[in-house]
Design a protein that fits this description.
Order of helices and strands: HHEEEEHEHEHHEHEEHEHEEHEHHHH
CATH architecture of the largest domain: 3-Layer(aba) Sandwich
Number of strands: 13
Structural class: alpha/beta
Bound molecules: nicotinamide-adenine-dinucleotide
Distance between the termini: 43 Å
CATH superfamily of the largest domain: NAD(P)-binding Rossmann-like Domain
Oligomer: single chain
Number of domains: 2
Radius of gyration: 20 Å
């Protein structure tokens, strides 16, 4: 069972460590650890109460931006951590956004579609005063999707009595959504993985590279599909019910069919494995695309992958990071590897705000440029400073946020 404990304490420790490398002042550290707005409500659906949150971390670079998740383990500490990571992610990608996140403590699997719609509309009624295209802009995350974003937009516009499609991204295309957004997180991760292969001189080895993927939802499945279509060997995948393994490579489309029919990947042909075993597979790449705190001090020493790509936010704890680094396992960190979703969201927001509609090919090209340039920027900086990719990504992102705070006269 997933235990989400003290993630924000983990972040405080990371900031403390990095602040020493960056020689940050007490004031700068306080700014980084401060939250602009913490909004909490209880949502009522058919007499049942669901704690809900919308948290804005830092908005010095622009309005808050970050997803909304529906999960039984959602809590304030976790949403704060996610909002903090969004500030860094948006900053690193050079976007004009601050960081925010939202969540509802609910098991969406126990609700009917009608109840999920009611919950989503109740969320917007509760938080409409903090949301808006120039204030704070949500998007899909764990167990939320474009249909839910559509209901949320509809509720918001009804309350405000005007159109404002830029108040939310990841919407259906009909409501101003962007085609690129649907699988953008995975596409971004895929580009990063290929760029990484280039710098280590292994880009021609794809059919020999073995990959394991934890999580088979939007992020995990779409990356598995892209890898499979391009000839990489995805040997293991898992979801919340468990995983499967085939050392010759899985047919990802068949696995997807199995998940659609029976709700999980576990009964697809191949050896059944647990999520714990998936994390310990002897693979070249391990992709984490489910939840936070998956690799901890208890299992980090058992990881055999040469490189980990973080599509999930915060799947590796600070202590685990140190063990992986000692074991020479390279981590392509979340704020770099899963930024594709928010980059595509940025395009959607720009289109909504300006009324322009850009051609898909133009957006695809811009998208690739932003992701590749983020990767190269971090890689070059880390090589020069001889630090790991997470530390490098954090430093670059923090510098930009503090630069904005300084020019605002706050430092
Ligand atoms: P999703 O709801 O579409 O899929 C989640 C997947 O994780 C499902 O397959 C589920 O079965 C699996 N899962 C849940 N608990 C698990 C467990 N204990 N062990 C193994 N698998 C488990 O969510 P998503 O949008 O794919 O998001 C996955 C992760 O990626 C989250 O951490 C999210 O914050 C992050 N992320 C997503 C996006 C995006 O655009 N979707 C962007 C950035 C980051």
């Amino acid at each position: 069972m997933w235990v989400n404990k003290m993630t924000f304490d983990d972040i405080k420790k990371r900031v403390e460590k990095i602040s020493k490398l960056m020689h940050l002042s007490e004031k700068e550290i306080n700014i980084l650890l401060k939250f602009k707005k913490i909004a909490k409500r209880e949502l009522d659906v058919n007499g049942k109460k669901y704690p809900a949150f919308r948290i804005l971390h830092n908005d010095s670079l622009g309005p808050g931006k970050g997803g909304i998740r529906y999960h039984p383990d959602v809590n304030e500490d976790e949403v704060k951590s996610q909002a903090f990571w969004m500030s860094l992610k948006n900053s690193l990608a050079g976007l004009p956004f601050g960081g925010a996140k939202g969540g509802v403590r609910v098991n969406p699997k126990e609700l009917s579609k009608r109840e999920i719609e009611e919950l989503s509309r109740a969320y917007v009624r509760a938080f409409q005063y903090v949301l808006g295209q120039d204030k704070d802009i949500p998007a899909p995350d764990l167990y939320t999707n474009s249909e839910i974003m559509g209901w949320m937009l509809d509720e918001f516009e009804k309350i405000k009595g005007r159109h404002e499609p830029g108040m939310i991204t990841g919407k259906p295309i009909e409501l101003g959504g962007c085609k690129l957004r649907e699988d953008a997180t995975s596409k971004g991760g895929f580009i990063i993985l290929k760029e990484f292969l280039k710098v280590i001189g292994r880009e021609k080895e794809k059919s020999r590279l073995k990959i394991g993927i934890q999580g088979f939802g939007n992020a995990g499945f779409n990356l598995a599909r892209m890898l499979h279509q391009e000839g990489f060997k995805v040997v293991g995948v898992s979801d919340s019910k468990g995983g499967i393994f085939n050392e010759n490579g899985l047919n990802i489309f068949e696995v997807k069919k199995e998940k659609e029919i029976n709700g999980s990947v576990v009964n697809h042909s191949g050896t059944k494995i647990t999520n714990k075993e998936l994390l310990e597979l002897d693979v070249d790449f391990l992709v984490l695309a489910a939840l936070e705190n998956q690799i901890t001090k208890d299992n980090a020493d058992k990881v055999k992958a040469e490189c980990i790509l973080e599509l999930a936010n915060g799947p590796i704890t600070l202590e685990a990071d140190e063990i992986l680094y000692k074991n020479k396992i390279i981590v392509l960190p979340d704020i770099l590897a899963n930024a594709g979703g928010v980059v595509a969201s940025y395009f959607e927001w720009v289109q909504n705000k300006t009324g322009n509609i850009f051609e898909d090919c133009h957006l695809e090209k811009r998208f690739e440029d932003i992701i590749i340039s983020s990767f190269r920027k971090v890689h070059k900086f880390c090589n020069e400073k001889e630090i790991n990719m997470r530390t490098g990504a954090y430093i670059i992102a923090i510098k930009r946020i503090l630069g904005a705070e300084k020019t605002r006269g706050n430092i």
